């Protein structure tokens, strides 16, 4: 049975809606979508926070991967509906179901605290997403297979960007896709930031398919500009916030220590759900048992560990006492940074556990990226122009990495503490370092 025929007979007798703070109502018209939402693998996303450690900086950021995934589905549904109404010659209706399913399931493989946990186990959420979709043992796979035996592979190919239809891939993964449109607005809403607000309704009005992908009508350029600037601001002000990164560093170091202790057969208290990942021998079933609450429980238990380092790091994370940081110039200041790390290591702290360099960088937009299709504007005569050629604002942001490098150390090392001779010694070096940076920037105001 073709996806188009299945889609017609799969319609629900009454539309199902989910009330959403960002999109008002999320509309579900197909039983397969509703059945996918009801699977245990998708319901697990309720238990995984969207913003990871950023929730410790922005206390309202309690939203989940579940709500974000529904939001991406809803934006995609609106776009596909509009394509079918207005661009029947350019859009293949047979692509509707695979596009909607890929939009809904694109974040299925996220784990607890996402990227920090991924670094420890040496995998990534996209690989887990496709594994969950393709595994015959999952409810997700069973639901998708109702369309056709090959349908799970089709959905997975959208996630891996290998699907034969570039329009479908770009709607889910590009420099302006449904995923980014939702998380910018959703994260802005729940963090209380205004940076992520852009004219979504206008973008959904001017987006259009063409033979090789997705473009935007030229008259909608300013709405697309606004999106690019909003994305830049959210990364600089929210996603790269120093305090959030401090909590991420704390989590990274405590997981690193726990894994080391496990491999040395010294980890106590023992927490069996994490064993497969500490010994690098885990299955999809092992992974699907994990969520934020599992990791939080393990960390709570480790505060009583007889290993002083693990206990201290776990207590720091649980009680929100993150590492603190100082920004530095990577090329210029590295000798001083290493000196400061050595001072920490020479005291009561382990240098590798209690100092960490954290770098953040983002490209708001780049027309040269080979992995991402440039954003194109369609002019009145049907010709395409790349966005940065038409927009001076986007051109100024394009191709430039934005972010910083920071040294993270325990909080007391960046505070005045005359009673602690060791800390005050560090303070002198830190003050010298700060004066070096300030004086050098005053003398060289144009230096990056």
Automatic annotation (TrEMBL):
InterPro entries, A to Z: dGTPase-like (IPR050135), HD/PDEase_dom (IPR003607), HD_assoc_2 (IPR045509), HD_domain (IPR006674)
Pfam families: HD (PF01966), HD_assoc_2 (PF19276)
Enzyme Commission numbers on file: 3.1.5.1
Keyword Cell division attributed: no
Keywords carried by this UniProt record: Hydrolase
Record GO biological process: dGTP catabolic process
Molecular functions (GO terms): dGTPase activity
SUPFAM superfamilies referenced in this protein's UniProt entry, alphabetically: HD-domain/PDEase-like
All copies of domain HD, residue ranges: 65-184
Descriptive protein name: Deoxyguanosinetriphosphate triphosphohydrolase
């Amino acid at each position: 049975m073709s996806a188009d025929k299945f889609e017609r007979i799969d319609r629900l007798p009454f539309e199902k809606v989910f009330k959403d703070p960002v999109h008002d109502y999320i509309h579900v018209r197909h039983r397969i979508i509703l059945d996918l939402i009801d699977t245990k693998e998708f319901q697990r996303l309720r238990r995984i926070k969207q913003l990871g450690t950023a929730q410790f900086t922005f206390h309202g950021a309690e939203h989940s991967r579940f709500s974000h995934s529904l939001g991406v589905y809803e934006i995609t549904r609106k776009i596909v509906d509009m394509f079918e109404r207005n661009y029947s010659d350019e859009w293949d209706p047979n692509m509707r179901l695979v596009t909607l399913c890929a939009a809904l399931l694109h974040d299925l493989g996220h784990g607890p605290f996402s990227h920090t946990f991924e670094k420890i186990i040496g995998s990534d959420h996209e690989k887990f997403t496709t594994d969950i979709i393709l595994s015959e043992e999952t409810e997700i796979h069973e639901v998708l297979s109702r369309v056709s035996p090959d349908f799970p592979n089709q959905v997975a190919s959208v996630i891996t960007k290998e699907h034969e239809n570039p329009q479908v891939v770009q709607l889910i993964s590009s420099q302006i896709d449904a995923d980014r449109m939702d998380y910018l607005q959703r994260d802005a809403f729940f963090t209380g930031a205004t940076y992520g607000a852009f004219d979504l309704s206008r973008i959904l009005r001017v987006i259009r398919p063409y033979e090789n992908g997705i473009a935007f009508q030229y008259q909608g350029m300013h709405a697309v500009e606004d999106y690019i600037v909003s994305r830049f601001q959210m990364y600089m002000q929210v996603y790269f916030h120093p305090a959030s990164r401090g909590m991420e560093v704390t989590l990274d170091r405590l997981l690193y220590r726990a894994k080391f202790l496990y491999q040395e057969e010294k980890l106590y208290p023992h927490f069996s759900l994490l064993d497969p990942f500490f010994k690098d021998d885990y299955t999809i079933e092992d992974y699907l048992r994990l969520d934020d609450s599992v990791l939080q429980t393990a960390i709570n238990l480790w505060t009583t560990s007889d290993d002083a380092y693990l206990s201290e790091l776990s207590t720091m994370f649980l009680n929100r006492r993150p590492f603190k940081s100082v920004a530095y110039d990577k090329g210029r200041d590295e000798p001083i940074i290493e000196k400061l790390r050595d001072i920490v290591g020479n005291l009561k702290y382990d240098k590798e556990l209690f100092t960490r360099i954290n770098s953040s960088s983002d490209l708001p937009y780049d027309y040269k990226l080979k992995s991402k299709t440039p954003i194109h504007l369609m002019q009145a005569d049907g010709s395409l122009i790349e966005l940065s050629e038409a927009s001076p604002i986007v051109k100024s942001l394009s191709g430039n990495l934005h972010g910083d490098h920071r040294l993270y150390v325990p909080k007391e090392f960046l505070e005045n503490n005359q009673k602690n001779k060791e800390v005050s010694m560090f303070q002198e070096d830190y003050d010298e370092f700060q004066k070096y940076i300030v004086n050098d920037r005053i003398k060289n105001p144009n230096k990056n």
